[in-house]
Amino acid sequence: MTSDVLRIAQPWALKNLPPFRPVAVKMLRLTAQEDVPLSKVQQVLRTDVTFSAEVLRLANSALIGLRTAVSGVEQAVALLGLERLKALSMTIAMRDFVSTPKSNSTMQVCWRYNLATAAICEWLAPLLALPSDTCYTAGLLHDIGRLAILRSFPEEYERIKSVIQNYDFDQLRCEKDLFDIDHCEAGRWLLNSWDFPTELQEVVALHHRQPGPEMPELVAVVHIGWQIADMLGYSPFDLRSAATIEEITVTLPESTRRSIFSGLDELAATVAQNLAAGELVQV
Question: Residue 125 gets which letter from DSSP?
């Protein structure tokens, strides 16, 4: 499906959604460039005063764990660095996008699942020689289609969630039957409409497919990441994944698999600590 086709009509299940924060999209594009002057990053952040204030608030929280108090945008950029600042910006923007005056328990569970997947993908990144910030962002965004449908139709999605859990139905097929679009297609449409990079559009569209030789590395990382999140008990459904870590990582090189196996306890603790420290960014 081409970009032009994706732009023709907005799916009815994705109507009445808030815009994604433009400052976060600008940050995403800017930090993807090489040798970005810090002054440009500061300039982008200053285009949204409320967003900048939230960045400063979180920069001083346990989520980041800086020893030095951050009092201004310039200092935040210098102390956090581009990678962490990009991840923080995307986390704030995602939280704002899915937040509603009456956030329900399903939304909170799905949000924690995305945060857990992001933390796992970030942990996997150096083992696969991939950029940590890109893997974090990909993990954070992978289920944005589900979050968007849930935000628009919370009661309807709650019912479909119950059906999937009670009868072990295929979630993508159930979503398609009820909303005429599944969350992978929905995520692709949203990221395309916001002009996100193609590699992130591929992640949200393909993350449920089994990795193969031609699958982009970033998609493969997220596919492994969400399955580990399921295995660790963060699934948005009351169904713990039956897949073993050996099965989840079967497509990876043996040396990488051994590193993952030996680090699972560390990873589980890291995710739990990140989620505990991230209470300030809960929906």
Answer: G
Q: CB of 141 within 8 A of CB of 135?
A: no
Distance CA 137, CA 200 (A): 8
Q: Are 166 and 183 in contact (CB under 8 A)?
A: no
The third-level CATH classification (topology) of the domain covering 3-281 is Hypothetical protein af1432 (1.10.3210)
Cα–Cα distance measured from residue 85 to residue 83, given in angstroms and rounded to the nearest whole number: 5
pTM (two decimals): 0.92
Find how far residue 58's CA is from the centre of its chain: 18
What distance lies between CA 196 and its chain's CA centroid? 13
How many whole angstroms separate alpha carbon 4 and alpha carbon 193? 10
Tokens describing residue 163: 């059906």
Q: How far apart are CA 95 and CA 77, in angstroms?
A: 21
Element (H, E) at 233: none
pLDDT digits over 73-123, tens only?
899 888 888 888 888 999 999 999 988 876 688 899 999 999 999 999 999
The string of pLDDT tens digits covering residues 164-223 is 888 778 899 999 999 999 999 999 999 999 999 999 999 999 999 988 888 999 999 999
Q: How many angstroms separate the CA atoms of 222 and 141, rounded?
A: 10
Residue type, 153: F
What's the CA gap between 180 and 174, in Å, rounded? Answer: 9
Give the 3-state secondary structure of 152-182: HCHHHHHHHHHHHHHHCCCHHHHHHHHHCCC
DSSP code at position 129:
T
Closest to 237 in 3D by CA, of 186, 171, 151, 147: 171
Q: Which residues of 187-196 are buried (b: 16+ CB within 10 A; e: fewer)?
A: bbbbbbebeb
> DSSP 3-state assignment of 278?
helix
